[in-house]
Amino acid sequence: MTERLVIIGNGMAPGRALETLLARAPGRFDITIFNAEPRVNYDRIMLSPVLSGEKRFEDIVIHDDAWYQRHGIRLLKGCPAVAIDRTAKLVTGADGTVAPYDKLIVATGSSPIIVPIPGHTLPGVVAYRDLDDVDRMLAAAATGRHAVVIGGGLLGLEAAAGLKLRGMTVTVLHLMPTLMERQLDPAAGHLLEQAMQTRGIDVICRANTHAILGDTHVTGVRLDDGREIPADIVVMAVGIRPNAGLAKAAGIDISRGIIVDDRMATSDPDILALGECAEHRGICYGLVAPLYEMAKVAAASLIGDTSAAYHGSVTATKLKVTGIDLFSAGDFADRKGREEIVLRDPARGIYKRLVIEGERLVGAVLYGDTADGAWFFDLIKADKPIGPLRDTLIFGPAFQGGAALPPTAAVAALSDETEICGCNGVCKGDILSAISTKGLTTLADVRAHTKASASCGTCTGKVEALLAHALGGAYKTRTAEAVCLCTDLGHDDVRRAIRDQGLKSGHAVMQALRWRSSCGCARCRPAINYYLLAEWPGEYRDDARSRFVNERLHANIQKDGTYSVVPRMWGGVTSPKELRAIADVAEKFAIPTVKVTGGQRIDLLGVRKEDLPGVWADLNAAGMVSGHAYAKGLRTVKTCVGSEWCRFGTQDSTGLGVKLERYLWGSWSPAKVKLAVSGCPRNCAEATCKDIGVVCVDSGYEIHYAGAAGLHIQGTIVLTKVATEDECIEVIAALLQLYREDGRYLERIYKWMARVGHDTIVGRVVDDLDGRKALVQRFEFSQVFAQIDPWAERVAGLDAHEFAPLAVIPYREAAE
Amino acid sequence: MNMFLDWIDVGALADIPPRGSRVVASPLGDIAVFRAADDTVFALLDRCPHKGGPLSQGIVHEHAVTCPLHNWVISLESGEATGADRGCTPKIPVRIEADRVLIALPETLAQAAE
Ligand code: SRM
Ligand SMILES: Cc1cc2nc3c(=O)[nH]c(=O)nc-3n(C[C@H](O)[C@H](O)[C@H](O)COP(=O)(O)OP(=O)(O)OC[C@H]3O[C@@H](n4cnc5c(N)ncnc54)[C@H](O)[C@@H]3O)c2cc1C
Ligand code: SF4
Ligand code: FES
Fold first, then answer.
1. Pairing of the two strands A29-35 and A74-77
2. For position A106, what pLDDT does the model report?
3. Confidence at A80, pLDDT banded by 50, 70, 90
4. Separation CA A407–CA A468 (nearest Å)
5. Is residue B8 part of a domain?
């Protein structure tokens, strides 16, 4: 006869226990789950990305409805259990449902602590525990402006970062002198505080909240020192308390949590407890890793396997705030007999501290560079004397034994529970099992199936090493990465073929190079289109159907399907007439947002597609052309005021910027190209983080290149210094042309430079004068065909079909 | 329900660029009518199952379109997301008759739009 298993609570811990149970003893239990939340099991730790908008709820569901159905599990959503009758072996739900059990699991998690200060019951005071809390915060962010977060621990900081990303001003109030004091030592806490401040989040430590203010809704918070901080929402994230009340009422032994033994059994042998509500050897855990260990043991106990036992866990914490690298594990309090090893590198923003007790590593705090966190964590868990490792321990595994471990060996050495992808919480074991069970062979496969490396990508190297480790020789690392799945050829192969075989259409390229698909895909088509355009100026006709929508419609698509329009504003200089025309257009077409961009010009956001030609016509009439804000091509040339006005200006930086923009605009390139010209080394135009930058000095012009300030902040390097404006413009045109002829599609100048080498580039555009002239000639020839305002062409009727519907079916016709 | 309304003529095949698409505005919302390289014609609601991106503005390749917002690849034949992504965009019945494009609005959808 099947045994009846009832589970109270449907969080992450019982979810994992069920997976193990169903795998080990399918069909053995008839399962009923009471869940207070009205939904399926989801990845609670990913609520912060949902709050910040980086993920949707659907992305973080662990078991969907179909899963419960498939396994014949009765999931009672929105139905909290209200009583356990241990004599009759029955659980009663709030709606009166009664479920008999042979075995019962209590996994009620914990509840957020709400400090009972005056005002704590006002609408607008929320905790941070489940999806409903996230929804409440999102609602507040949609209408309100100020948020106060009480509590500077992991949850509070994640909530603060999320609310900030949603556009609120955020203040974190923390009672203790430094943030996350339970996971971080004071030094790292300070660094974290600085990082939060630079993100625009206000942090007040030693802040004792006196009262929450407001009559019908929260309006602010008052501190003990009398300070008042405005708030439309107050998030309380000061700690959690295990939910042990139900068990207590049933007469089960509890202390802080429900007391369990090494097999997860409570004082009643037929009742197990696991997760945050459980207390094992005096400890209640608040992180998933230990709960997952408990889950495996609980599943084993249920099927009578007594070999499995839980012995407690050492925990590690990572803060999930994008851009802040922070890791802590073990115990790092100062105590007698403990020694520490500290490494500080303020210039790089790195701080590392290891705590050693009797030859063993017991704690680690890493800030700024957490790459070695997993390795230290393994050492802490191993709990063995570190011996001679000690001298170089702080430098991480790369320095052990003199030489760095090859990456494959390094990942092979990690335990299965080691987290590889911090963004998506994917462990080494998850990736390896996906590789073997689903037969994955590429990085793209692993991303698609496990989400590892699919978010910020910093773990890509590790994921590749795992693939190499799992597949051995069968895994090809990306030496010459194929353009896309349609071919095995790399970008350089394709370009060479276009040049050498005189291929002049996308179709010819795919034919000659035996593309696997009939007409390419969204990755290769735009690349090939660019290569053809660059190779055969004047001859090749641009293929609109191979252009990404922005380059086809000459405007940037927005998330709601409207477009943004950015006219050129040469060198960032404008006039009353242009501003008037922009204002008129914005009013005439009811354009909702007019914004100054980071590129020194004005963006009209939220234009309806059908209005685009009209908007352009009016802008053209005032003398303005497309700013190519959408283009893999020349974007902006930023300038500062320079010698014309500025007391420090050495040259006419504004004038040079305008000349450069007028000369270079319209050119297509492998990736976007941004320029800036600064009038002196104070560099107000930020020329040293641009693809190409000019810094004027008394004696002439320093030409910089290979900078960027996006995903990777990258300072430029100096290409050369020249004495005259003409020479400056010539070198820049040659550099741009070389890049246009040699860069791979989507490879920005800094990446191109890293690939081909600075010396090669200097040789071609600085040293080889004839070669430079030839490059400039080729550039100017291609500009003859490129400098046509795409807006004017569309206004004149080109591709009119892009903007008008094919047909309009009126309501009546459809309904008849 | 499988009852369809009458076929509605929405234009000539030549009005849709090959490997391209045009939009038909309808009471159900925009409908994207695609013409593949081999001249097969498909119609889907112009709404990506991911976050509602306008599929009509994507790059059409083989019998699929890549959404312009976040690059999901949607099968034109089934309306379903391909690869590891999950989601489906409703298909709209479409056929070609003497170089004219005809579509039909499913009754259930039309009623839902009321
Ligand atoms: C509008 C603007 C933000 C603003 O309101 O100020 C903007 C908006 C976008 N940027 Fe930007 N960037 C804008 C200035 C910048 C700057 C600042 C600058 O140019 O000095 C940077 C850092 C400098 C740089 O590029 O190195 C910047 C780095 C990026 C990046 C990261 C590039 C990288 O290689 O790391 C992307 C992503 C990409 O290109 O793939 C990006 C992509 C985007 C896109 C195109 C995202 C997209 O694909 O839709 C945004 C288009 C919005 C739209 O529809 O207009 N934007 N973006 C700025 C337009 C400048 C202009 O007048 O043309
Ligand atoms: C925003 C956030 C971020 C986090 N980030 C991390 C992180 O980065 N790393 C990490 O390791 N951990 C993190 N945690 C902690 C982690 O989510 C928890 O440790 C874990 O979810 C606990 O699992 P559980 O199954 O014990 O309880 P829970 O997941 O809390 O599930 C308990 C469930 O039981 C339900 N319940 C309670 N009482 C009853 C009842 N009487 N009847 C029926 N149902 C009931 C509750 O509604 C809840 O759905 C985070 C938590 C939050 C809230
Ligand atoms: S891409 Fe640029 S404009 Fe868009 S949200 Fe990011 S930083 Fe802002
Ligand atoms: S909306 Fe289509 S991919 Fe995101």
1. parallel
2. 98
3. very high
4. 9
5. no
Residues of chain A above pLDDT 70, percent: 95
Is B72 among the domain residues? yes
Our count of domains for chain B comes to 1
Q: Are A129 and A237 in contact (CB under 8 A)?
A: no
Question: How high does pLDDT run on average in chain A?
Answer: 90
Residue A621: phi and psi, rounded to 5, are: -60, -30
Centroid of ligand 2 to alpha carbon of A153 (angstroms): 16
What CATH code would you report for A325-404? 3.30.390.30
Q: Whose CA is nearest to atom 3 of ligand 1?
A: A597
Give every residue of chain B whose pLDDT is below 70, as ranges: 1-5, 107-114
CATH of segment(s) A125-238 = 3.50.50.60
At residue A579 the predicted structure's pLDDT band, cuts being 50, 70 and 90, is very high
pLDDT at A677 over 70: yes
3.30.413.10, 3.40.50.2300, 1.10.1740.10, 3.40.525.10: CATH of A634-788: 3.30.413.10
Predicted ipTM of the assembly: 0.64
d(CA A200, CA A717): 30
* A519 chain-B contacts, CB cut-off 8 A: 19, 37, 61-62
Digit-coded pLDDT (tens) for A144-173: 889 999 999 989 999 999 999 888 999 999
Give A178-198 pLDDT, tens digit per residue: 998 888 888 888 888 988 988
Q: Is A755 helix (H, G, I), strand (E, B) or coil?
A: helix
Stretch (H or E) spanning A645: none
Q: Are B23 and A549 in contact (CB < 8 Å)?
A: no
Question: Please, are residues A360 and A383 in contact by the beta-carbon 8 Å criterion?
Answer: yes
A381 has pLDDT over 70: yes
- Fold adopted by A419-474: Arc Repressor Mutant, subunit A (1.10.10)
- The one-character DSSP state at A766 is I
Looking at CATH, the fold of the domain delimited by A3-110+242-302 is given as: FAD/NAD(P)-binding domain (3.50.50)
The residue written with tokens 């080394």 in the block is: A681
* CA A567 / ligand 1 centre spacing (Å): 15
As a three-state string, the secondary structure of A231-249 is: CCEEEECCCEEECCHHHHH
Q: Average pLDDT in the A534-557 region?
A: 92
Residue B111 lies in a domain: no
Nearest atom, ligand 4, residue B85 CA: 3
Contact check, Cβ <8 Å, A518/B37? yes
Q: Whose CA is nearest to atom 3 of ligand 4?
A: B70
Query: Please, are residues A495 and A461 in contact by the beta-carbon 8 Å criterion?
Result: no
Which one-letter amino acid corresponds to residue A626?
Answer: S
Please tell me the distance in Å from B26's CA to the nearest CA on chain A: 5
CA of B53: which chain A residue's CA is closest?
A561
Is B33 among the domain residues? Answer: yes
The confidence score (pLDDT) of residue A292 equals 87
- Asked if A3-110+242-302 and A125-238 have one fold, the answer is yes
**Which has the higher per-residue pLDDT, A340 or A355?**
A355
Query: CA A220 → CA A234, A681, A698, B45, distances in Å?
Result: 8, 45, 55, 46
Q: What atom in ligand 2 is closest to the CA of residue A37?
A: 47
Task: Among the bound ligands, name the one nearest to the CA of residue A598.
Answer: 1
Q: Is A103 helix (H, G, I), strand (E, B) or coil?
A: strand
Nearest to A351 by CA among A155, A175, A187: A187
